[in-house]
Write a structure and sequence with these properties.
Blueprint: H1 3-35, H2 41-66, H3 70-81, H4 85-109
Length: 115
């Protein structure tokens, strides 16, 4: 994996958790708006919207660089629109990055044949 691909996956991973938190906070704010006089929906909606747009841009960049299958790319997109899905995406991306580091070390040490 080249540095640009690794960077695009890292950016996607970094934005996943804040996007998920903003989504959950927006849902809570929506409930509070309807049950109390507290209305943080406009501010949280804008924050979540910006984070979601950034997530989609990073997702497109990662998809383009990694050449994911459609199924994998769709999974990461669906995780962005499911509450708490960003945390799942972050965990999956971290696991994939760790696996890639292990594979790269094994190739460098000559313990694994490269195809």
């Amino acid at each position: 994996m080249d540095i640009k691909t690794a960077s695009s996956l890292h950016r996607l991973r970094l934005i996943s958790a804040p996007e998920a938190v903003s989504f959950v906070l927006l849902i809570i704010a929506s409930v509070l708006k309807r049950t109390t006089d507290f209305n943080a929906v406009p501010a949280l909606g804008m924050i979540h919207g910006i984070l979601f747009i950034i997530y989609v841009l990073f997702w497109l960049d990662a998809w383009n660089r990694t050449k994911w299958e459609f199924k994998t790319a769709a999974l990461y997109f669906v995780l962005s629109v499911v509450p708490l899905g960003g945390f799942v995406a972050e965990r999956k991306l971290k696991r994939a990055a760790d696996d890639e580091v292990i594979a790269a070390r094994a190739r460098r040490e000559g313990t694994v044949e490269t195809a």
